[in-house]
Amino acid sequence: MPSLVKALPPSQDQYLQQLIQQASQKQLSESRYWLLLLHYRSGVFGAKSEIDDANFFNSPQGMFDPQSELKATLQSFFNPPEDHDVSLHKQCLFVARYSWLKTQLQFNPDLLPEQPCPRYERWIKRLNPQSINLIFPSSRLTAPATIFGHTSLVLNTKGREAFAPLNYNVTYGAFADPEVENPIKYVLWGIFGGYAGIMQNTPYYIKIQEYNDAEGRDIWEYELNLTAQEIDQLMKHFWELRFVRFRYFFFLENCSYQLLSLIEAAKPEYHLRERCTVWAAPVDTVREVLKIPGILKKKNFRPSRLNQVQAKFQSLSPAEKDVARKIYDDETQLDSPEWHQQSPRVQATILETLSDRILLKKDKKPHQKRWRQLLKKRSQIPYQSQHSVQQPDFSYEQGHETSKLTTSLGRDLVSQKNFLHLQHRASYHGLVDFPQGYDFGASIKALETSVRLNETQILLDRFLVLELMSFVPRNDFLSGFSWKIQSGWERNFRPNAQCKNCGYAYLQGGLGYTFSLADHSLLSPLLTGVLQYSEDFPKTNVALATQAQLQWLGNYKQWTWQLLLSQSMYQSEAILPVEGALQLNYAYQLDHEFALTYQDTQRNHLLKVGYGMFF
Fold this sequence. Notes:
By secondary structure, this protein is an alpha+beta fold. About 30% of the residues lie in helices and about 30% in strands. The two termini are about 45 Å apart.
């Protein structure tokens, strides 16, 4: 709750007024660091804090008035602690504000005595960070909730260099469980700020177990080059933010955005959050932090358990893999002559692979007995394993930027007319975008607008609200479905079973399988359902269709391509001819590409040549 104004002795009251006057003369309430500490953002109606928790402010108007909050904060430093608990003194609750104002105004300790803060001192002594890591867990294509990635910080305690998992992790997230919440509610509340956001610190090993082990996600660790003073500033600001409630927004004020405020507290000369206006993708925030000159001290790759298991399995020959599959299906094969013919290296690798594969299962309890038996068998083999996962050539922040603008010249092959095509995408990555730093076979697009201009008209061609696609090739460890979800609005430019030159909203979803033909060459048969709505449709405003699709996705050096064949059957039992679309992209630089597109579909028959730029 905001502090109540209490009567002060005349000497202290006079000194308080003097401090307020000095702060006003120095315009401290308008200074960069004060606005940063209180999380103020400028808007149409003036400043407003991003924090919605009244306990964070000392003034009833503090959420909207930086000057009022500064005056009330100075007043609170003179007041006695609540409940006579010195740890609840405002100097102790708001250590970052007290430290900064003390530096700016040179507090007189005789008139404003500095209070002991035992709780804060114990906390900072226990954590004792000598360095800070920025953490980026990769996405997992089979889990939509992880597809944008995530960021957090790790506080590297002095003297714990050899035991990094025992350090503490700082994370910000929505106060909600996506595994329990209704999926529709979870998405809507997340988009429109229905959940509270909270900043916490937990042991890092818990996050390693969650990301590396349970979710199969690699972790990139970036050690930041911060001075002891900068780390102290970061920690003081984090102390003030612990358990303070924000409003959580998936797209902007999310896990990555709020962590930037801690880095800004250490390096206030860099306005990291101001670069995030509509969208704060985790990989973008990592990229912005690493743009700070000299900020990166060291980068470390922590592979997931899934990748470690796959690396062990791939070290086996085809015949040895067959032995492993037989044992997985029938443990009695461990007594077979074929098993005893294997070398200690092969036996150790197979047993480790099979025991680790059990750990990848979501429900491990039914397999615990078998897991212990495999470990016991492995302990009897005198062989020291030497398996390592090769670090990827590129990490996520080394990929292209996430917004895209494309300009194309096209020809409508039905009307034989030329047109100019403009497309803007707010975020993030498409199937045929250059895959360096991204997951090949994944598409995450949001708010993509396409406009067609011809000699007489400017027409909205397509507005894609959201596209999520995951094409993961099946193997011995991944056997789930590939899937796709699309929603938006598009215009039809040729006669078909529905209408001509009309616009319709659509929702499409589908499931299938993906098979690897070669490295970076994926073949995916899918079955999809399509719901379309338009007031221009004849008879009824709604059209339902089933589509059979076959997709070939490939990449070779700078070339990426997608060939998509599909056939639709509507509820009216109208079966459309086979449709085809081909897109071929050439990335001549990381953020620049040329594209050739041919479409012969129910809504378009065209040829386009274009240039795309990421920014």
